[in-house]
Amino acid sequence: MGGYLGMPDYNGDDGARVLQNLGKADKTQDEEFDLHVANFTKQQMVAVKLQKELKNYLQCVKAMSLASKVFYETVQESYEDSWTGHSDMTGAVEALAAMWEDYVLKLTHQVQDPLAAYVARFPEVKHKIAKRNRKLMDFDGTRHTRDSLVNQKKKDETKINKAHDEMNAAKKIYQEINAELHEELPNFYESRKSVLSSTLNSLFSSEAKFQEESAMIKNTLADATERLSKESSDVFFKQFNHSPHMSSNHASTTSTPLSAGKLRHIPNDNSSNHSSSNHSSHSNQDDANDSVTIKSDTKKVDYFNRTDVIEQPITNGDADINVPSNRTPDAYITVDAEDEYESIMIDSQTMTSHHICWPVKRITANEADNVYSVPTKHEPVAKDTVLYQVEATHPYAGEDTDELTFETGDLINVIPYADPEEQDDGWLMGVRISDGQVGVFPENFTKRV
Question: In what residue span(s) does the BAR domain sit (predicted)?
């Protein structure tokens, strides 16, 4: 149904519901087109947000890829050549680095690039919609002028014929672009299903493959380190059980009863009055009454053959320690001479372990990353750029962000387009004098001053 405009059908028998607002503000209404524009706007918001979050996600993946590469290279360096599973460790680290690189490339080429191409189409369609709206205003303006001439008491046929020709020309241009958008907008809206499904499928498939292969490599590393752990445990206990030093000093270095507080060296004045047999007979009873047990690291020193380890008497501190008379004269703990230690508190039940405070690296964000620049306001237009001045003869409400809104009698300075190729026939670029707002407006709604 063409209606007043005699416009062609766009959707078969249903047709386009084109209405007319007849009166002073004579304006063509197309409800079906408005629905297409609403769907397009919603579609654009979803796509732009998805692209933004995908970009952030991919940046995190790249950062994780680099962190994984550096970390596992360090693990490989710490895994000595003579250890069991060294070849497995080397191969797994290299394979894992290659997997991360392939994973990042797939996310970039199969997910990010197609989504970017999809989002890039929105500005083109949006520009076409804005152009269609301007052509509609041209058509309504010429029709309004023709109707005004026809309704005059003293008719000028020459002006009427000229206005009629201008109206038909504007109508033809408007109908062509309007028909294209009536077909293009629904098709573009339906394309969101195929684009998003294909993009997300590539994302999930790449992640599933990466995680599956990564899990296999991690299992290989776990098996290698487990074999090494079992071998080192067997050697450790064998050396521990056959060490003369450890056998003779086991009772004195592996358990020493302490009261709560700091540690200090307590000489044993009664050690000469007790034989080694008495020490052995009372060992189990003393261990049962111990409130705290300090385990010696001497076994670890023997195993690793450390040369930078010293034994120091526990001499610092001022808390009382009740040491049974059958203990050896001095109690020792094994410490690393080059390492720094923090003090530890010992309660009546157990000795808590160290809490090491690792240094935290402060990361300063790059000010150039992900920072939105605030657009500046319109600067005052220089007088030499003003072509001429016009006065509004009819009120006009701008329908796009780049259009001016004005009332009858408002003064506007006409200025040249920044890009002359963007200028449409019948439209001017101007500055509203009342507030300095810059935008385009229909020429036939104004007159020169």
Answer: 18-234
